[in-house]
Amino acid sequence: MHGVVEYDISHIKGPLANTFLMLINALFFNVKLIGLNDVYPRDYSQQLLKEEETVFDFIIVGGGAAGCAAAKEITETNIWTVLLIEAGDYPSPSTEVPGLFQAHPGSREDWQFWIEQDKRACQGMVNQRCMFTKGKVLGGTSAINNLRYSRGLPDNYDRNNCDEWSSTVTSAIFDKLESYIGSEELQFHFGTSGEVHLQLSNFTGHPKELLYKAYKDTGYLPMPRRKYIGLTDHTLTIRNGERYNMAKAFLTPIKDRPNLFFTKNTMVTGVVCTEPVDKRAVGVNVSIDGNEFFIRARKEVILTAGPINNAKLLLASGIGPANYLKERKIPLVADLAGVGKNLQFHLVVPMYVAIDPCENCPKDYYKELDFIADISEYILTRRGNLSGIGIGEFAAYILTRASGSSFLT
Ligand SMILES: Cc1cc2nc3c(=O)[nH]c(=O)nc-3n(C[C@H](O)[C@H](O)[C@H](O)COP(=O)(O)OP(=O)(O)OC[C@H]3O[C@@H](n4cnc5c(N)ncnc54)[C@H](O)[C@@H]3O)c2cc1C
User: Fold this and answer.
1) For 28-67, how does the pLDDT look when each residue is reduced to its tens digit (9 = 90+)?
2) Of 131, 141, 177, which is best to mutate to test ligand 1, by the most ligand atoms within 8 angstroms of its C-beta?
3) Is 136 in the pocket of ligand 1 (CB under 6 A)?
4) Transferase: is it a keyword of this entry (predicted)?
5) Which tens digits make up the pLDDT trace of 351-398?
6) How many CB atoms lie within 10 A of CB 323?
7) Are 62 and 264 in contact (CB under 8 A)?
C-alpha cells in the first residue's frame, strides 16, 4: 500500500489506549530532538540586507564539506573575519535519518541537475538523462549522500607521485579528522578524536546476511585488516543513529566564534575581479530574497561550491576558455582552458535480484507494518533499520584487472 495509511483507533480503550498515548507522547518528545537548527551557526542574512557596506577578510562560497572545513580552519585565528555563504537552508530533520537517504535526491535540498543527453551515458534512463544530485543545503551533499565512509586505498594516493598527497601524508590527515567509535576489527585503523564522527550501524538485516553468504560461497572472506580485498561493513558518517553531516562535523564545534558569519538562502551569482589590472578577486555578487548586492573580500574569495557550481560561477565571472566566453558574450577576465572541463564521476549500477522471504527472521524487511514499527523504533531509540542504510552497508572489494597492484599484498 502506498501513500498515507489511515487507522481507525476509536475502539482502543483501557491499558492499550494508555500505551498508545505513551507512545504518542514519547514520539513527540523525541521528534523535537532531531534536526534542531541551533547546532549550526546563526543565520546572518537579514543583517547583511540591512548593512550599507559589507566587507569580510575571507568569503567562502558554498557550505558543503569543503566550505565548512575551510571556515573552521580560517576562523582558528581571530584576526580574520569569515563569511560562509550557502545557497540552501539548514538541513531538514529528515536528512538526519540515515535510512531516508534515498528520499532527498530530487528534493528542494538537491540542485536537481540533469545531465545532457550523450551517446554513451544513461542510455537506459527516460530520455537518456540521469539526475546528477548535488546538495543545496548547509552541509552540501554530505547532508543528503549515502553516508558511507572509507579511505582511499594507499595506491590511490601514491600513484600520482605527488609528495603532498602521498598515502603517508593523507593517512596522518585522516587520523586527525576521524572520530570512530566501534570495534577494532575494521580494515583501516581510524582516528578517534577528530571532527568526522564514524560508526557502524546496528542494522543486521536479512538481505545483507544473504550477500555475505553468497560471496563466501564464491571464496571471498571478511576483509583482513590492511589487505583491501574481501567483504566488509561500511563505516558510516553517523553518530548515535543520526547522520553526521560535515556542517555538524566542522561548524557545530565553532558555531559561536565571533569572527564566523554564516548566511543561508544566499545565492552567489558571480565573483568580482579587479580586471584587467591584476585580476584579483575582490568580492562576490549575491542575491538574498530577490535583493542583489556586492560583498567585498579584503583577502580572498574561496570557491567551495562543488564541481558543477564552481565551474559555473567561474565561467559566469569571465574566467574560463576565451572562445567559450566570447560566444556567450561574457567579458573575459582570465583565459583558462580547463574551467568547465574534465568532470569525472563514478558510475552507480543498480542491480535488482529477487530473494526468498526470510522464514526465521524476527522481521521481514519488506512488509509495510515492519516499516511502521521501524519508524517508531527509530524515533524512540534511534536504532533499527532507519538508523542505517540497509543493504548499502555491505561492501565487497573484489579482484579486478588491477589485481596485480602492490597494494593488494
Ligand atoms: C547521491 C550521492 C551519494 C553520495 N554518497 C557518498 C557516500 O556514501 N560517501 C562519500 O564519501 N561520498 C558520497 N558522495 C559524494 C560526497 O557527498 C561529495 O563528494 C561531497 O559531499 C562534496 O563536498 P563539496 O563540499 O566539495 O561540495 P558540495 O557538497 O556540492 O557542496 C557545495 C555547497 O555549495 C553550495 N553552493 C553551490 N553553488 C552556490 C552558489 N552559487 N551560492 C551559494 N552556495 C552555493 C551548495 O548548495 C552546497 O551546499 C555522494 C554524492 C552523491 C551525489
Assistant:
1) 666 656 778 999 999 999 999 999 889 999 999 999 999 9
2) 141
3) yes
4) no
5) 887 777 777 666 655 565 677 788 888 888 888 888 999 888 988 888
6) 11
7) no
